[in-house]
Amino acid sequence: MTRIVLDASAILAVIGGEPGAEKLTPALLARAVGSAVNLAEVQTKLVSRGWTPEQAWEDATSPVREVVAFDEHQARLAGDLAIETRHLGLSLGDRACLALGIALRLPVYTAERAWKKLKLGVRIHVIR
């Protein structure tokens, strides 16, 4: 069973029951991993909405089965992606997600439609 990588936007969609979240079925979520960078991004967003830090972290990590540390290899990949993704304005968190997908050779799920324009050698699924 192949794992999948969730972007912060996909995690937030699941937490908030937003459009597209239904595409992330229980079977897919059972195989989901997330970059520690993206989970920090989700936690930050939730805290800014009034969650306590503890509840925000619990909710941020609830859709994923594994939190993957952001290592040197991923950092290099994320930095390398800056040029290729500049035209779309991707953040460090976005590039960290893509770097994880590239490093692990796993498909990436996001709510960011613009990512469909990327040709990075990793399969990108846009949930809305």
What distinguishing features does this structure have?
128 residues; alpha/beta; 48% helix; globular
Short structural summary:
The protein contains six helices and five strands, in the order E-H-H-E-H-H-E-H-H-E-E.
Describe the structure.
The protein is built from six helices and five strands, in the order E-H-H-E-H-H-E-H-H-E-E. Helix 1 (8-16) packs across helix 3 (36-48) and helix 3 (36-48) crosses helix 4 (53-61). The model has no long low-confidence stretch (mean pLDDT 97). The protein has helices at residues 8-16, 26-29, 36-48, 53-61, 72-85, 92-104; strands spanning 4-6, 32-35, 66-68, 108-110, 124-126. It has 128 residues and is of the alpha/beta class. A five-stranded parallel sheet has the order 3-2-1-4-5. The chain has a single domain, classed as 5'-nuclease (Rossmann fold). 48% of the residues lie in helices and 12% in strands.
As a percent range, the share of helical residues equals 40-55%
Order of the strands making up the biggest sheet: 3-2-1-4-5
- Quaternary organisation of the protein chains: single chain
Rounded Rg = 14 Å
Q: Assign an overall shape.
A: globular
Order of helices and strands: EHHEHHEHHEE
Look at the structure and give the mean pLDDT.
97
User: Beta fraction of the residues?
Assistant: 5-15%
**The CATH C-level class name:** Alpha Beta
CATH fold descriptor: Rossmann fold
Biggest beta sheet attributes = 5 strands, parallel
Between the first and last Cα atoms, what is the distance in angstroms? Answer: 24 Å
The count of β-strands is 5
Instruction: Please tell me the CATH architecture by its name.
Output: 3-Layer(aba) Sandwich
Give the total of domains: 1
Number of helices: 6
Broad structural category: alpha/beta
Give unreliable regions as ranges: none
